[in-house]
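User: For my dataset I need records formatted as: sequence, then structure tokens, nothing else. Please produce one.
Assistant:
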Amino acid sequence: MAPLARLPEMVPSAFLRVFQPIEAFDRAEQAHWERYLVAGSRSLAARPKYIDRPHSRNLGVISPADGEHAEIRIVEGHTFVSPWRMRLRVMTALVAFAEDEPLELSESYVPKRDAARVRRRLARLRRQEPSVVSFVHQSAWHVPIRWFVFFSGAERRLTEDEHGRLRLRYTTTVRRAMRRAEDAIPILRKAELGPITDLILDLHQWMAGFPKGSILELDYASLSELMSWDELDDDHSARDINEAIEALSGGEFIRSADIYQGVLGRWAEVRSREILN
């Protein structure tokens, strides 16, 4: 593999990001992001460069070639930062892939020896810097239905980005998102939806590690490009999921199931495009 290359556009993905107030970072990292802002951050028009850092003859881990990047949001005059932490995310994904073993030939992609080496490096990183956590969850080809539990329909925004591309986003505070999860989990457990509640609880615990005042964003990102304007305009998944949970809490099981199946079908259609790729 070439030591330095521009990666092509990744597969269409949605992102669940936490944005932390810049003043909540430790002094050294805060200074880094302040310099980053002064420098104009990364150019959104250019594709980022990555470098392959080999771990063995078979396996390498990509990292930004020109330093750490972040997504930046300015809200009511306050600066919020969501670091990419690409190296951490890649190592975490490699370990998860090796442990889940979704394919019979998974060891051909991530050999056990390399997976063990990455696992040790990841453990060492977490021991040395326990505050280093991923600010981002990424989902290829679809938005996981459970992500909508954290948002209300009123927090939905369909806008154009600086390049004129349509983008659909939801934005709320982390604390508000956590309260919504706390309200939904008992309702879902009573309906014997344990696997879903466990996944929501995992995200709740992830958000609990961020400081007060942090923001949670669901960004359709490049998934928006898979959908027409009409499809995006008609997509009110968070509102629908909230209605399904409310119906479930009131014992309206058939209505709840109908609403949920509607959302599930909508996203199954979007995700079906993965087969064509």
